[in-house]
# Entry
Amino acid sequence: MSLVLHYHPLASYCWKVLIALYENDTAFERNIVDLGNEESRNAFLKLWPAGKFPVLEDRNRNEIIPESSIIIEYLDRHYPGAVRFIPENRDQALKVRLADRFYDLHVHERMQKIVGDRIRPAGDRDPYGVEQARSQLATAYGLLEERMAGRGWAAGEAFSMADCAAFPALFYAEKVQPFRAGHKNLSAYLDRLSARPSAARVVAEAGPYMHFFPEEDR
# Structure
């Protein structure tokens, strides 16, 4: 098979790419990377020394593609399907890329800061950094609540790469800093995302691993 995705079913940025693959029923082979297994970790580092997944391997084109947004753009260009993740209109494409970056940088990364701190040894915690991340998340929630008023999807009325980014970011952010009580537009948007078969599938596939997610601060 041409495409091989190197990933882990629990990893939020991997969800982003999986959603894009599932939206278009793109055929691909799976390689679950176990960073706790020396053989699996070393094989992955040989492929991509930066050591962050997901990574897409295209054996037909002899390409290694890291970074979730770049992978989705690569799929949109070389393996297009019914759902186009980047609009052909350049102005609209900028809106999609902006929304994609906003979810990655202002929701996803802040959420990961909080989660990452939960699994640190007690003496290495960063309470100031966590409080800062929580404040930044609250600001992002407010901006998104306004943005999603009267809007169907993240960058307009068509499902796009930005929505692939939004689902894992919001799904996990809701677990670490709930927003549903005061953000009806953002909550309705997460519900729409959750109802898509692609999103439901990544959640189901992560089920056997979800007990590894640190639900509470220790």
